[in-house]
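Quick one - inputs below.
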Amino acid sequence: MIKKYFFQLIFFNLFFSKEVFAAKSGGMPQLNPEFWVSQIFWLTLTFGILYIVLSKFILPKISANLELRKSQIQENIEAADKQRQDSESKIKEFEKIILKSKSEAKNIFKETREKTLKDINSKKETLEKQINEEIKKVEKEINELKKTAPQRINKIAIETSSEILKSLLGTEINNSSISAIVDDLSKKNGNKYYDN
Amino acid sequence: MATNPMTQFEVYRIGPEIKIGAFDISFTNASLFMVISSLAILIVFNLGSKKNSMIPGKIQLLAELSYTFVSKMISDTAGSKAKPYFSFIFSLFMFVLFCNMFGMIPYTFTVTSHIIVTFVLAAFIFIAVTIIGFIKHGFGYLKLFVPSGVPVVLLPLIVIIEIISYLSRPISLSVRLFANMMAGHTMMKVFGGFVISLGIVGGWLPLSFSVALTGLEILVAFLQAYVFAILTCIYLNDALNLHH
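Output:
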């Protein structure tokens, strides 16, 4: 039932629309020359004014704007390039300075090291010299002492033995005989005491 | 009401009848849309060129993009010699484009859907290009009709064909634009009529078709303006750089 109505509706509408289009179709208004002159006149007028205003006032402005922007962008690019180059050269300078200071620091370190080493060496030498001298002096003294020691010991031995004999015997004994004995003894046993 | 798809192309008088001699130059709806299109172009491009900011605004960008678009089109097809004719081709392209686009608004009038308008434009271009050709090359411009490397036997035939093709340029140029605009608008009107007559039950199909056609017609409006301008450039190229 509904389906039938639906189809009837569509069919009727199509039929109706065909009727409407068929009823009023005339020719092409474009081929009606009634307003041709008017259209030509107004086209010439409006397009002429449009062309004159565009070409005299507006398009040169747009062109100038574009040129200006182009040149400004170019300038900016050039300025940026220059600044980049500047900063690059500055970086190079900076690196150079750093390298220079590094080598300077190294040199200073080396120099001071050598200097201190030299100082130490010279001081060492003088110290050694002094020590050697002291040692020699002391050795000399010792040697002298060693040389004089037997005589003194002999003397002491003679004196002490004469004193001991005096107290023991109560009489004076000739020193020369005692010294002869001591000398004899020291000659005999000297090597035992003084390992010369 | 206006169910006839051709009524949208009818021209009628707006205001009083103006006559110069025997000629009727009354202000019509066609004249109105010519004036509106020209004014719209002037307003848009005046706003677009008023102040020059380093970073362009929307309208300025539009104006500058159009400028570079047309300028590139001319230099690509007609070379650097065509620079003096830049303003004319720019005006032509913008005029045709704006007339086409204003025609896409419902209840408006499409100026370029009238053969007389497109024919006047095309005839002007044809005559101007011919004059430029003769000024630049003298009678050497007639070499355009004699292509090089053609056998002598075929030459008379080729020359006749070339002359016919040259003379038919204004007709083909004008009819292309006019027929495209008229056919598109008629088709949209027809589908619109189907929407009304099929009503809420069956009208959805022609409605969706009509929507799709609107997109297509906007594309055609731009494309035909572009074709009109680029063909002008090609004709100009023939006149300026004669090498055949």
